[in-house]
Amino acid sequence: MSEMAQTAEEATVRRPDLSNARLRKRYAAERRFRLYGLLAVLAAVGMLAVLLGSIVLNGYSAFLQTHIALDVHMDETVIMAEGDTPEAMADANYRALVFKAIERRFPSVRDMGEQRELHRLVSGGAPRAIKDMVLDNPALVGTTQTVWVKADDEIDMLHKGYVDRTLPENRRLVNDRTLGWYDSLREADLIELQFNTTFFTGTDSREPEQAGILGAAVGSFLTLFVTLLLSFPVAVLAAIYLEEFAPKNRLTDLIEVNINNLAAVPSIVFGLLGLAVIINFFGFPRSSPLVGGIVLALMTLPTIIISARSALKAVPPSVREAALGIGASRIQTVTHHVLPLALPGVLTGTIIGMAQALGETAPLLMVGMVAFVVAVPSGFTDASTVLPVQIFLWSDSPERAFVEKTSAAIMVLLAFLITMNAVAVFLRKRFERRW
Amino acid sequence: MKVTLYLIALVLIVGFGYWVGRRRAFAVSGGRPAHLHSLPGYHGMFVALWCGLPGVLLAAIWFFVEPHVAEYVLVQNLPAEQLEQEADRLALLIVDVKNIAAGYNVFREVTPELEAAAAAYNRVFEIGRAVMLVVALCASIAGLAIGRRLISPDLRARNRVERVMTVVMIVASTIAIMTTLGIVLSLLFEAMRFFGRVPFFDFLFGLKWNPQTAIREGQVAAEGSFGAVPLFAGTLLITLIAMLVAVPVGLFSAIYLSDYAPKRIRATVKPLLEILAGVPTVVYGFFAALTVAPFVRDAVAAFGLEASSESALAAGAVMGIMIIPFVSSLSDDVMNAVPQSLRDGAYAMGATQSETIKQVVFPAALPGIVGAILLAISRAIGETMIVVMAAGLAANLSANPLEAVTTVTVQIVALLTGDQEFDSAKTLAAFALGITLFAATLCLNVVALHIVRKYREKYE
């Protein structure tokens, strides 16, 4: 009994309470380290949330557009001034109709300068809308119609609450007079938000309320089509050769190192290549989806090759051996057995490569796809722009209204990217085989 | 239009060739296809290749020489006295004539001679292309006839088709090499022309960057100075800031996700981090310019300091966010590659989890992590859109992260997106910057990939 007490005492003498304190310290360090890790993850996820949140908060309002109700008198003497054929009616001065309608709404405004300000309440695209209405239904001529026309972008901003009314007039987007008109329209319930179809059906414009993404989206589609057409077959063939046929020698080693390096070359360098070789040397048309597609194809090639190779590598050798064993040639083995089994993986890699190409901007700036293009491109050699470049162009525009347009365009782009990645994930989940 | 028609005709002929080949093979086998050397389908492909290859090659060659032929015809059609001017002015004239041909307005009196030259230029595209496409189609049809004649029961159709396929595969796998070669040669060629005007060392060590050159001869304007040191310094400053954000956050998230996080959290957070990598850079650029830059300015103002609205801090921080997933996923990989036995050994000695990570796993994974960080640096140096949108154009030589600095990529974009002559020192400077960028990132990549690969082999 006393002996045991003695050994316990000796133990405490040799190692007094110190061990516990040290243990506590070590455990504290452990907890701290763990906390740092958690904080890092939270920081990363938080940044993602802030990024996406700021885009959505800035952009959701662009899907709505402020409209003003005008009682437009379809004055015969104006519309039929040059005759009553559709051509003559198309040439009529619809601006005058719109202006008169606004002036009638505010009869007290007599001063020329003030009237000009008044005209700026509605979008410059309003006369066109009236014209289309009249041409669609000539019976309207001579009647008075209540028409919802687009408001100017500044009124739009005001209505959406982006204009701070407390600022002094000279630092405000909208002056006091316009503010008064806006308030009177609002009290009369003649101004409201409607769904902004122009954003999806229009092309680039200097006027924010008339700007849309259709042209850029079509340009993106054409460009990606060229990219897919070029990079998919070339990448799959290259991957098959390198994985299944290539002898192990210095040349194939070089190709392999080269592909890995090419995947990490800055994208803007591919743009320089496109400018110097494809445009200036081969004389391909500048700003066209064709050139953009070729540049992006060269850029995505390594990505697709690398993922296609790993998909091929995942097919077990027994499959090849069985095929060769019953007398298939090496190419038959690959095309009949290995490639079909690897195809889901190859397609996943291709979709991810395409998503990367869809979001790419810098190389396309180099090959001239930054042009201000109003027409929807109709072919592979037309001047066009793409969604990310459109975002870049709009983000550069000074008008406040382009901020929300830019954010909305980003939301559309992200929606495309998320869809593509979701398809890739689905393919992987649905068709991938574990051997 | 013509090209579309040609492609449709080509597809039809090739399809027809396949059908003809198959039928012919059945015919020559005398109704017993087992007597053929190859399956009838291979005879079909054999004839289809005979249809496709010669014609497509002809058409492809024409498309590459077409612009050069057209330009030759254009020069031949210019009046003789116009040809006797300096090469620069002649090149300008040729560009103008091409613009006339395309129907654009030019700053030059359009004489009938020029119009004639433009018309001749257009004719090459109209007539020449039509003739060549017809010739190519004829070649396809001739190929069909030849291929069909060659078919016999002993024809080793499969071997021939497979040989063609192998050649095509080899060509496809050399395209990557060709791309690299194309990049190096084109950049080098243009950069050489630049260094013919601006001495190499002035470019590499010059302290002043101001690429405004005289547009017309005799114009009073600055010669333009092309000292790239401020650009290199700006690039390094922004990269450094990006790394200060990305490395700690990326490393610690990798550690947390690989060693601490419960499975469920890992399964949700990893894809979220991958979203960060998938967001287009133009979106980051917009975020930096619209949200982060004003935030930095206000935050700094609270401390009584003044930040430029295009501060290096904002661009660098956002670039850091973009790079987090690169660092975290690559480090995750290398730390997972450290054998479990090393961890088990450390636990057996009584080490806590964090001690194991800090003193065993991390040192073992260090080379791989260094490789990952080098790859991330290379990514940051070459990143373009964030800095174009959020960093400035002013070439300040400054280490103050609150000031505006410019980077190599920003200047490349700025030099090449304006409308200007392709041969000016200004545009050529972009290629000199481009090859510097390419060389720097290539070195980083080679070293990093080598380290990562070496490291992976060590534990396999």
Automatic annotation (TrEMBL), chain A:
Main location: membrane
ABC transmembrane type-1 domain mapped to chain residues: 217-424
Membrane topology recorded in Swiss-Prot or TrEMBL: Multi-pass membrane protein
Species for this entry: Ferruginivarius sediminum
Gene: pstA
InterPro entries, alphabetized: DUF3333 (IPR024573), MetI-like (IPR000515), MetI-like_sf (IPR035906), Phosphate_PstA (IPR005672)
Official protein name in the record: Phosphate transport system permease protein PstA
Transmembrane segments: 33-57, 213-242, 262-284, 290-312, 364-387, 407-427
Domain of life according to the entry: Bacteria
Lineage: Bacteria, Pseudomonadati, Pseudomonadota, Alphaproteobacteria, Rhodospirillales
NCBIfam families, A to Z: 3a0107s02c
PROSITE patterns to which the protein is assigned, alphabetical: ABC_TM1
TrEMBL record, chain B:
Gene3D superfamilies, sorted: MetI-like
Membrane topology listed for this record: Multi-pass membrane protein
Record's GO cellular component terms: plasma membrane
Keyword Transmembrane applies: yes
GO BP of this protein: phosphate ion transport
KW Hydrolase (keyword) present: no
Main location: membrane
One Pfam family from the record: BPD_transp_1
Single GO MF descriptor: phosphate transmembrane transporter activity
Keywords (A to Z) from UniProt: Cell inner membrane, Cell membrane, Membrane, Phosphate transport, Transmembrane, Transmembrane helix, Transport
Alphabetized NCBIfam families for the sequence: phosphate_pstC (TIGR02138)
Protein name (database record): Phosphate transport system permease protein
Organism: Ferruginivarius sediminum
